[in-house]
Amino acid sequence: MAFLWRYFPVAHDIPQSIVEHLEEFRRRVLWAVAGFLFATFVGLWQQNRLLLLLMRPAGLTHLIALTVLEPMLVKFKVAVVFGLILAFPWLLLQALMFVSPALTEREARHVVPITALSVALSVVGVVFGYLFVLPPSTRWLLNQAGSVMSVQITALSYVSYATLFLAALAVTFQTPLVVLTLIGLRLISRSQLRRQWRAVYMTITILAAVITPDWSPITMLLVAAAMAGLYELSLVLARWVFPGRELAPVAGEEHAG
To answer: Phi, psi (5° rounding) for residue 175?
Structure first.
């Protein structure tokens, strides 16, 4: 994919006026909105299949609507979420096309790999949550009703719960990108992260507890294990991407001891 960076308009040596910047911004926003609307239209076209797909991890066959507007709101919400997911690479591309004239050729070379990594991590996060976390999480929550309560799941509440949880995992799976960025900017070193492993894993445990909607030990363990694996992977990637970078002192580190 390295050849793709050439298609970005790297023109940092050509000054542009405020009007030209605003015109370029307007053009990119229009292209981004057009792509999102097209993806949302596809979601509206396949709304029933998407809703059934979202219900499958919980083993649900039907949902309840409490108001006249709820069926329409649910289908629209499913279509919008699908539109955001489908159009995410396109939205990133438009943002990068807008800022690319300010980049040097060396910086522009990292645009496509970073974008591809971000999209791939988001997809992996959503798939991981859909296949391995959402099913046991939903079953555990439903089992809390026991024999004394009858659970009636409304369509809007379930769709909100499932989409919010999957979105949180998509963001959480950006951990390698965040770690690589911090090391690349010399805000922290790989050796520092290794020394502070207790604090890192405590943070991972807390985040896993916050992200999981049910707080069940199994779900939190799955999310925490995934985050820990991504963190360790990011350190391995950092050693390969930035060889010797951990030897470079971070600002203030050389005075710390």
So the answer is: -50, -50
pLDDT digits (tens, 9 = 90+) for 52-108: 999 998 888 889 999 999 999 999 999 999 999 899 889 988 888 887 777 677 667
Let me know if 57 is exposed, middle or buried by CB neighbors in 10 A (0-12, 13-18, 19+).
buried
Residue listed under structure tokens 């219900």: 55
Nearest to 98 by CA among 189, 191, 22: 22
For residue 62, count CB atoms less than 10 angstroms from its CB and return exposed for 0-12, middle for 13-18, buried for 19 or more: exposed
Dihedral angle, C-alpha 14, 20, 22, 27, nearest 10 °: -100
pTM for the full predicted model: 0.79
DSSP string, 96-111: HHHHGGGS-HHHHTTH
Separation CA 238–CA 188 (nearest Å): 11
CA–CA dist 58, 77 (Å, integer) = 19
Give the whole-angstrom CA distance, residue 159 versus residue 51: 8
Structure tokens at 248: 């470079």
**Cβ(137)–Cβ(165) below 8 Å:** yes
CA distance 243 to 237: 10
Instruction: Tell me the C-alpha distance between 193 and 183, whole Å.
Output: 10
